[in-house]
Specification:
Layout (H helix, E strand, L loop, with lengths): L1 E6 L3 E7 L4 E8 L6 H15 L7 E6 L5 H12 L4 E2 L21 H14 L3 E6 L2 E7 L5 E8 L1 H11 L19 H28 L4 E5 L3 H5 L7 E2 L3 H15 L1
Parallel strand pairs: 1-4, 4-5, 6-9, 9-10
Antiparallel strand pairs: 1-2, 2-3, 6-7, 7-8
Helix pairs in contact: 1-2, 3-7
This protein binds adenosine-5'-diphosphate, ligand PAZ and potassium ion (K).
Cofactor: NH4(+); K(+)
Family: Belongs to the type III pantothenate kinase family.
Protein name: Type III pantothenate kinase
Length: 256
């Protein structure tokens, strides 16, 4: 069985893949100081709690936080006796190499999303991933990552308002009933929600125009369904896109 680990700047997600389906998905906050033993204690407790029969033979890691990789490597080696594949490292091959400026370090999450989306939908795609940052990844006709856009994440934008302005409270993102807010919270909700719908549609439209070929928009990340309510341009939403991409890259490396 494969343990797929997706470590973002906010949350770290573990999923167990038995070759057919994901048996479970576990989520914890990302902390660079978490030790291998601490990962295992958390992981083992939840796997026992769910009563899943698990036999991990392989581990693959994608991390947008370089510092956490060391402890995840120790975790993999100590508890499963295996050397993990780490996306973005030279020993982890990609089905199609990215085409970007020389020397650019593409976020591994974006490479993984590209592989997952190409496997399911073929080329000519925009992948929109709502995480700490919101990323737009352009997948070419042959499955190569060829660039995109990085925007401040939704929660980051709300946090920034609260941090920088003394009178603005900490709030969660939600779709407001009206665009014209009549109190502070509704005004903030309107600005962030409709502002973000405009950002998504504006960037996707401009990417399509510049790309010059019809493209499908694939969205992922917990907040995507919320923006769909504001008529964001997504063609599909796939909650497990990053995890699927990790299985695709793992299979590709095993086959070779
Ligand atoms: N379904 C959801 N509803 C509301 N907020 C969410 C949802 N899913 C994720 N978030 C929030 O979005 C932010 C980014 O989450 P996440 O996707 O875990 O980011 P990353 O991959 O960068 O770690 C976090 O602040 C998280 O709490
Ligand atoms: C843009 C990101 C911060 C998104 O990370 P996340 O929101 O998943 O934590 C990450 O993909 C990253 O660090 N990228 C490196 C720069 C690039 O992709 O061009
Ligand atoms: K992201």
């Amino acid at each position: 069985m494969l343990l797929a680990i997706d470590c973002g700047n906010t949350n770290t997600v573990f999923s167990i893949w038995d070759g057919q389906e994901f048996l479970c998905t576990l989520r914890t906050s990302t902390h660079h100081a978490r030790t291998a033993d601490a990962y295992f204690t958390w992981y083992y407790t939840l796997v026992k709690h769910y009563g899943i029969e698990v036999d991990i033979t392989d581990v693959i890691i994608s991390s947008t936080v370089p510092r956490v990789v060391f402890n995840l490597r120790v975790f993999s080696d100590r508890f499963f006796g295996c050397r993990p594949l780490v996306v973005g490292k030279p020993e982890c091959r990609l089905p199609v190499e990215p085409r970007v400026d020389a020397g650019t370090q593409v976020g591994p999450d974006r490479l993984v999303n590209t592989a997952g989306a190409f496997d399911r939908h073929g080329g000519n795609l925009i992948v929109v991933d709502f995480g700490t940052a919101t990323t737009f990844d352009v997948v070419a006709h042959d499955g190569a990552y060829v660039g995109g856009a990085i925007a401040p994440g939704v929660n980051l934008s709300l946090e920034a308002l609260h941090t920088a302005a003394a009178a603005l409270p900490h709030i969660d993102v939600a779709k407001p009933d009206r665009v014209i807010g009549t109190n502070t919270v509704d005004c903030m909700r309107s600005g962030v929600f409709w502002g973000y719908v405009g950002l998504i549609n504006g960037i996707c439209d401009r990417i399509k125009e510049e790309y010059g070929h019809p493209m499908k928009v694939v969205s992922t990340g917990g907040l995507a369904p919320l923006f769909q309510q504001g008529h964001a341009v997504f063609d599909v939403f796939e909650d497990d896109l990053t995890m699927h991409g990790l299985t695709v890259i793992h299979d590709y490396n095993k086959e070779g």
